[in-house]
């Protein structure tokens, strides 16, 4: 007798099937760990992103860079607000309606915000590159109007090519059976094919942005250090923070997003086949953990705002949260070249 017929919860169904396969993987335990990780991340992420959104809102929109910063803060805050929905979906005994809603809307909005953030980080790096390395880059668009147009295009393109089609094609009645994933059961054949296409598209976007960010910030670092040398500056203390800024931006992006996109490349074929097996189970756990790691970016983005935007640092100083240390840091940032 198939023990899955005794349950209506997809997570329990998956765990029962895996017990039959004796894979040595308990999805119930893995889900509880992921739930805990999301709730642990939620409070600091919410506080940091509310603060970042408030400070960004206070900044005068005089350039395309500030526009990108505000859109990035909005995407991070919206993504943070979806954390409880994602965590609740994994809770034991979660309502079937909540699981279905999350499949069709919650997860889609989550990924929408994540990839808008990724693309905007790439655009911000290009903006800094044209401003610092190629001063003539202002001709390519440093105005606030240009930034608003580019930001709108980013939201519209990602929404129309990934989010909306996924919502429309995830329209089947939820089936709680022996298949591995509820969300895949809610997709028709076209939806499953489109899911594969969207995954490939998003992976390509990530690696292109990674290359762009690496190239731009390496060039920026070389240009700023060269400018110090040309001015015969021997102040090593000023060169060190610049190298650190570049290093932190690259590491944050690489550490947060690379593991997830590498794992997803191997996971999606198993996900689309929608069959329970040990390989699927191990990749599913790896995907969930690396996706959580990717979401930690919402806590690290405010650090990037601090490093790249002098106006953000000054507004944060006005809050007087960090006392004398922050006063000294802000004073130094006024003397150094800001990214």
From TrEMBL:
SUPFAM superfamilies given in the database record: Family A G protein-coupled receptor-like
GO MF entry, a single one: G protein-coupled receptor activity
Specify where it is mainly localized. membrane
Record-annotated G-protein coupled receptors family 1 profile domain positions: 48-305
List residues traversing the bilayer: 29-55, 67-85, 105-124, 145-168, 194-221, 242-262, 289-308
Its cellular-component GO annotations read: plasma membrane
Q: What is its membrane topology?
A: Multi-pass membrane protein
User: Would the keyword Cell membrane turn up in this protein's UniProt record?
Assistant: yes
| A Pfam family of this chain | 7tm_1
- Its domain of life reads Eukaryota
Q: Where in the cell is it found?
A: Cell membrane
State the UniProt keywords alphabetically: Cell membrane, Disulfide bond, G-protein coupled receptor, Membrane, Receptor, Transducer, Transmembrane, Transmembrane helix
Family, per entry: Belongs to the G-protein coupled receptor 1 family.
Full protein name: G-protein coupled receptors family 1 profile domain-containing protein
**Organism of derivation:** Coilia grayii
């Amino acid at each position: 007798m198939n023990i899955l017929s005794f349950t209506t919860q997809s997570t329990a169904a998956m765990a029962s099937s895996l017990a039959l396969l004796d894979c040595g993987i308990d999805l119930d335990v893995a889900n509880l760990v992921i739930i805990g990780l999301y709730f642990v991340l939620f409070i600091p992420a919410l506080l940091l992103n509310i603060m970042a959104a408030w400070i960004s809102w206070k900044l005068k929109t005089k350039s395309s860079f500030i526009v990108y910063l505000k859109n990035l803060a909005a995407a991070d805050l919206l993504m943070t607000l979806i954390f409880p929905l994602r965590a609740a979906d994994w809770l034991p005994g979660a309502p079937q309606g909540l699981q279905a809603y999350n499949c069709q809307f919650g997860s889609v909005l989550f990924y929408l915000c994540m990839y808008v953030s990724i693309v905007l980080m790439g655009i911000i790096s290009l903006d800094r590159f044209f401003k610092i390395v190629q001063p003539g880059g202002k001709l390519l668009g440093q105005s606030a109007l240009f930034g608003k147009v580019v930001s709108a295009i980013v939201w519209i393109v990602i929404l129309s090519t990934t989010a909306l089609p996924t919502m429309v094609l995830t329209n089947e009645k939820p089936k709680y059976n022996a298949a591995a994933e509820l969300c895949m059961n809610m997709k028709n054949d076209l939806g499953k094919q489109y899911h594969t296409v969207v995954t490939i598209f998003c992976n390509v976007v990530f690696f292109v942005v990674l290359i762009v960010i690496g190239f731009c910030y390496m060039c920026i670092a070389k240009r700023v250090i060269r400018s110090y040398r040309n001015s015969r500056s021997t102040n090593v203390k000023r060169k060190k923070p610049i190298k650190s800024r570049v290093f932190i931006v690259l590491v944050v992006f690489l550490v947060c997003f690379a593991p997830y996109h590498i794992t997803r490349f191997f996971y999606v074929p198993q996900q689309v086949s929608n069959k329970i097996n040990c390989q699927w189970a191990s990749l599913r756990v790896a995907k969930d953990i690396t996706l959580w790691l990717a979401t930690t970016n919402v806590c690290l983005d405010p650090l990037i705002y601090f490093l790249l935007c002098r106006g953000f640092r000054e507004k944060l100083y006005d809050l007087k949260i960090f006392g004398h240390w922050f006063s000294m840091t802000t004073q130094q940032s006024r003397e150094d070249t800001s990214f």
